[in-house]
Design brief:
The chain is built from 18 helices and 22 strands. By secondary structure, the chain is α/β, with parallel strands linked by helices. The protein has a five-stranded parallel β-sheet, with helices on both faces. Strands 10-18-11-12-13 form a five-stranded parallel β-sheet. Strands 14, 15, 16 and 17 form a four-stranded antiparallel β-sheet that branches. Helix 3 crosses helix 4 and helix 9 packs parallel to helix 18. The chain is globular, with a radius of gyration of 23 Å. The two termini are 39 Å apart. The protein binds iron/sulfur cluster (2 copies). The site of one iron/sulfur cluster has 13 residues, from helix 7 and helix 8.
């Protein structure tokens, strides 16, 4: 199978990107797709390994290795190489419910453990996946399933993010009548409002929601469970209830003056910015000519950097509590690499600011306000030390430094579900995490995705939604 010498003949190519200073003039996707010949050459690099680690969906040292969806990667790589794109798409859709999401935002766990990456560069798997799904839409190969045999069971899914949508799709495909409730005006959860438009364009999310609607799923927006519709009503109306509400409780900044006007949580900042953009309104958080500090070093912080660059902030600084990662990977294949990476948003902010905006082993010591308004912060250096087998964060003496700051964006991760939401949902919890036995809260209520696992990857949330749905399907078919 495949082109036996493809991996020797062709170097890996990455998709070209629109240059930084041009692309930060708007919020559009900035990747330039491969031409067809390049796409097929890239697919031909796949060696069709006897043991394809790329699709292994396993854990090594408690870290995910290989595609969590077990996508049939070598098969569709081969078919792309042969130019049999529709057949390739048919293999892709067997395991991947939303390749247009993962093809845009997945960190490509598959590529990190691709055999080609042992001594060279991996196959461009994610680009191949995105190529296939877009080709499928373009050619009308994706048809809404209309011939679903219904089983007279009603399910409601609370939340329309990745896990809610994958659970809803799987249940709908298997004959359940599914209603999805969403608290926001637009559907998609994190995909709609938590990830900026340049990373996943919202028309892509809407295209999939429309398809799911055509397949028979009912979507209801602007509805808070426990407020606009009670749990008793849901219990009465549905045979099964699936909670897939993500993690809404952001880790707070616990320093003096943390109530200053100008401190904003990343999730609120990104949500409002995308909403304003889609509604054609002025940005509520207008960062133009402002000093912006972002606390956190993950994907969300990176998205905030890219957004701040687009809004033309005067200064952008990112504070990371961890040590600067090594420049060379320290973990052996097939682990996901441990090395310093500069993602798109940080790259854009670096380019705009003309220096690396990241400050490692640094955090906020105190917020300074005038009246109720944020005007600056004191930062300090910190380090993790081993304290009797446990890692403890300690201050480094005499490192306090003042930085002017108009907006302080907190991207320090999430604790779980907010107490208010848990009360509305009438769910018991420990430390803001719902008490569960696997997916089950009780015989009728299931929980999946980030709400069950804590903050994780879109691809893992999608897989979790599928597994949660399967458990419900099994209940009615065994
Ligand atoms: S979903 Fe992610 S891990 Fe799986 S094939 Fe696609 S890019 Fe790779
Ligand atoms: S590990 Fe890489 S080379 Fe091997 S089958 Fe998967 S994509 Fe192809």
């Amino acid at each position: 199978m495949g082109k036996p010498t493809g991996f020797m003949e062709f170097e890996r190519k990455n998709k070209k990107e629109i240059d930084v200073l041009t692309r930060i003039e708007n919020f559009n996707d900035f990747h330039i797709p491969f031409d067809l010949k390049t796409q097929q050459e890239q697919a031909s690099r796949c060696m069709n390994c006897g043991v394809p680690f790329c699709q292994s969906a396993m854990k090594v040292n408690n870290r995910n290795v290989g595609c969590p969806l077990s996508n049939l990667i070598p098969e569709w790589n081969h078919l792309i190489y042969l130019g049999l794109f529709e057949e390739a798409y048919k293999r892709l859709e067997k395991t991947a419910p939303f390749p247009e999401f993962t093809g845009n935002v997945c960190p490509a766990l598959c590529e990190a453990c691709c055999s080609c990456s042992i001594n060279k560069e991996s196959v461009s798997i994610r680009a191949n996946e995105l190529f296939l799904i877009e080709k499928a839409y373009e050619n009308g190969w994706i048809k809404p399933k209309k011939d679903i045999k219904r089983n007279n069971k009603k399910v409601c899914v609370i939340g329309s993010g990745p896990s809610g949508l994958s659970a809803a799709k799987k249940l709908n495909d298997n004959g359940f009548s599914v209603t999805v409730y969403e608290k926001n005006d637009r559907f998609g959860g994190l995909l709609m409002y938590g990830i900026p438009n340049m990373k996943v364009e919202k028309k892509i999310v809407e295209r999939r929601i429309n398809l799911l609607k055509e397949e028979g799923i009912t979507f209801i927006n602007n509805t808070k469970i426990g407020v606009d519709i009670t749990m008793d009503e849901l219990n009465e109306k549905y045979d099964e209830i699936v909670f897939a509400c993500g993690t809404s409780f952001a880790r707070p900044l616990q320093v003096k003056n943390n109530d200053a006007k100008g401190i904003v949580y990343a999730v609120d900042f990104l949500t409002k910015t995308t909403k304003n953009l889609l509604d054609g309104k002025e940005f509520e958080y207008n960062l133009k000519d402002k000093n912006v500090i972002i606390v956190g070093g993950g994907d969300t912080a990176n998205d905030c950097c890219g957004t701040a660059a687009r809004e033309k902030a005067k200064s952008i600084t990112e504070l990371e509590i961890t040590k600067e990662p090594p420049l060379e990977n320290t973990l052996p294949w097939p682990n996901y690499p441990n090395k310093k990476k500069t993602d798109y948003g940080v790259l854009e902010a670096n380019t705009l600011m003309n220096h690396d905006i990241r400050r490692y082993e640094t955090t906020i010591d105190e917020v300074v306000k005038e009246g109720d308004k944020l005007v600056g912060v004191y930062i300090k250096k910190v380090k993790f030390v081993n304290d009797g087998g446990k890692m403890k964060l300690v201050d480094v003496e005499n490192t306090r430094e003042y930085l002017p700051c108009d907006y302080l964006i907190i991207a320090m991760g999430f604790i779980g579900t907010t107490t208010e939401d848990l009360n509305n949902y009438k769910l018991d919890s420990i430390n803001n995490r719902v008490k569960l036995n696997n997916f089950k809260y009780n015989d009728k209520i299931s929980v999946c995705g980030d709400m069950k696992n804590g903050q994780s990857l879109v691809v893992i949330a999608i897989k979790d939604g599928i597994d949660c749905a399967q458990q419900i399907i099994d209940k009615y078919t065994n």
